[in-house]
Amino acid sequence: DSPPARAGGPVKRIESWQFDPPTAARELARQFGTADLSGYGVDGLAPALGAAGALIAYARHTQQSALPHVTGLAVERESEFVQMDAHTRRNLEITETLSGAPAPTLASLLDRCATSMGSRRLRHWLHHPLRDATAVSRRHDAVEALLAAGSPVRHAAVLQALSGWSDVERIAARVALGTARPRDLSGLRDTLATLPALHALLSSAPAGILDGLAAPLAPADDLHADLDATLREEPAAVVREGGVIRDGCDRELDELRAIQSDCGSFLLEMEKRERERTGIANLRVMFNKVHGFFIEVTQGQLDRVPADYRRRQTMKNAERFIKPELKAFEDKALAAGERALAREKELYEALLGRLQARLARLQEIADAAAELDALAALAASAEALRLSRPAFTGEDTIEIAGGRHLVVESQVDDFIPNDTSLTRSRQLLLVTGPNMGGKSTYMRQVAQIALLACCGSFVPAARATLGPLDRIFTRIGASDDLAGGRSTFMVEMTEAAAILNNATPRSLVLVDEIGRGTSTFDGLALAYAIARHLAEKVRCYALFATHYFELTALAAELPNVANVHLDAV
Question: How many CB atoms lie within 10 A of CB 320?
């Protein structure tokens, strides 16, 4: 069942039967056009299948569409990613600050993407660091290639080639749903026009590094030609306004438009003729969208109006008339206008239909462009922020020389780098030092460097070597949760329990000032017990900041505990 409604947004409750796994499997197979789901690796994932089936049903209901762009599913397993809970994501300020602002954060500093697709991909990477060192190294190889001096495929050239791109990812979804507007498609046309130059640029890269992105970004001449031949250079915002389909695209539409374009010359000719016939020098033949075509005569000339004029509208200083010849032309012209709009709508819907048949190609272009943009942004950030390529090892270690905290460094005039060494014989560091001395910054920078390395980014350090990492935990700061009935102390203990129960020897744990929510002696006892358990039982990488100086005695009792102290230069 859906969770209870939260403040800030509406909640749609879905019946429990819609989460039935066998029903969901049938619905998903029908959506993907397959006999079953055996090719997607979903065996044993009944709850996930139920959720996916309910999601598809909900999306179909809200979009009133068959969702043709949803053509498959991907299984993400915990073992693929370095796990982080919500507290850790918040404390590391990945995409929002502790106060909820979008900047300064890791994402705001690294996001130099040219497209919104690239920005979304980069944020996804930052929230989904990988455990597979081989996959991460491929990203590092690409970033390094985009940084190579003298290379034609440097990040600046790639970002320049992608500048001005429309959001192909979103446009493809709108095409699939039949909701794409003319300016979406004109933006897509202009984007596809840049593919040949971008493909040529990528093809000049060293073999093997960017090949996987060059192939999907090959020119799509057929798609571009279709859009270019069909759409006007600057189409109207919506189809119902007309002016969307290019002249020369359709003979019937051109004929209907010709009738409309003849209006001006017809009105001028009739006006000249009627003036001569009636002797009314200021007679005017006009048109507006409210009253259609009419002949306007001022009040002083009404005695000269011929008998075949029929009054259409009376005004303060003039009268408006219609005559059979003008009425016949009006019927023809207005009918042509309506038929032209109907024909434009037909042609536009036919264009959408042809694009829907090539949806997979559009999605392929969008996916490759998003990845290329994110990699180029990481390369640009590496150069601008003085980042270095990290190394991976199979040994259990985190070695950082000259590490920095990117977000804090961007806010101060002079940031002092620090080293970190965590190994099996030096697993837990007890961090002491004065208030505002940099303890929290030091601990967070270690976690941020590890996170960035596993995302495929270069890192803010002179050198960094990392062993296998499966989780990052943080227990930093605390406030009460009165609405949930939890005091500050209870919040602290709940988070500490989650770490003690879930951390493994390959987890990175940051603990900052635990025990502050209770009395001094109780807090000291708890901090001592938690630190000792992390060092003796869990044996994870840990940075443990404390003001309880008594804890430093642990380093003499346990061989894998060391003291480090933040001092002022």
Answer: 18
